[in-house]
């Protein structure tokens, strides 16, 4: 009988501990939808002197004011893409996800990518957007009648949307992106005309983003 009583007590104790674990997990899950997820986006060493290859194609130098306008357009794209989520682009000293815009790829490649990211289990990540690559793409896909202002807006959209793609990579991992032929989606992995000159939407990644950061489809 003593052995039976001891086993029963042990079982009750294990059940109680398990209940505490479940309750804690439930509490975390219940509050997770209300917590903000901090992200950071910034231009790093992107100056008129570092983007001369773009200025040459524009046939007029990009000024500091131009670059500020481009950054503003890029930030607007981030706000649009992640508007209905818990991802917040605030001045947090410890953001979970980061994307910085650099003048050109930091690693020598024959065919440099527009953006690159490293994801760490979907809970944090670091990435870059390569300004010159994206900006030259915007100019390559531009209509011949496009004026300078329209081209600057296109560069800003391209930089911002590339950053959107990289943030999604960090949150979902490589398997959650790049697997669509829909050229109007954020998930599409290549630079193309729509990336700069059309309205984009979330496609296959929407459901997983909803689970991870609270993304809701617009009605």
What is the structure about, briefly put?
The chain is an alpha/beta fold and 219 residues long.
Task: Characterise this structure.
The protein is of the alpha/beta class and 219 residues long. It folds into 2 domains: 1-32; 37-213, Collagenase (Catalytic Domain) (3-Layer(aba) Sandwich), CATH 3.40.390. 47% of the residues lie in helices and 13% in strands. It is built from 7 helices and 5 strands. A 5-stranded mixed sheet has the order 2-1-3-5-4. A hairpin with a 3-residue loop joins strand 4 (115-120) and strand 5 (124-130). Helix 3 (64-81) packs across helix 5 (148-172) and helix 4 (131-140) packs across helix 5. The chain is globular and about 45 Å long. The chain starts with a helix and ends in a 6-residue tail after the last helix. 32% of the residues are buried. Residues 1-32 have low confidence and may be disordered.
């Amino acid at each position: 009988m003593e052995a039976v009583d001891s086993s029963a007590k042990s079982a009750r104790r294990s059940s109680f501990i398990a209940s505490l674990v479940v309750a804690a997990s439930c509490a975390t899950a219940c509050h997770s939808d209300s917590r903000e997820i901090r992200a950071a986006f910034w231009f790093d060493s992107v100056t008129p002197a570092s983007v001369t290859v773009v200025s040459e194609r524009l046939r007029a130098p990009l000024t500091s004011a131009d670059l500020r306008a481009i950054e503003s357009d890029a930030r607007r794209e981030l706000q649009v893409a992640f508007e209905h989520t818990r991802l917040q682009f605030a001045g947090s000293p410890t953001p979970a996800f980061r994307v910085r815009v650099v003048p050109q790829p930091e690693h020598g490649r024959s065919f440099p990518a527009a953006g690159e990211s490293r994801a760490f289990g979907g809970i944090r990540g670091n990435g870059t957007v390569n300004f010159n690559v994206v900006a030259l793409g915007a100019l390559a896909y531009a209509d011949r009648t496009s004026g300078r202002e329209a081209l600057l807006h296109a560069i800003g959209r391209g930089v911002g949307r590339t950053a959107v793609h990289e943030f999604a990579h960090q949150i979902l991992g490589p398997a959650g992106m790049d697997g669509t032929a829909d050229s109007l989606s954020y998930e599409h992995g290549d630079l193309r005309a729509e990336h700069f000159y059309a309205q984009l939407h979330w496609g296959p990644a929407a459901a997983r983003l909803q689970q991870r950061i609270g993304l809701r489809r617009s009605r």
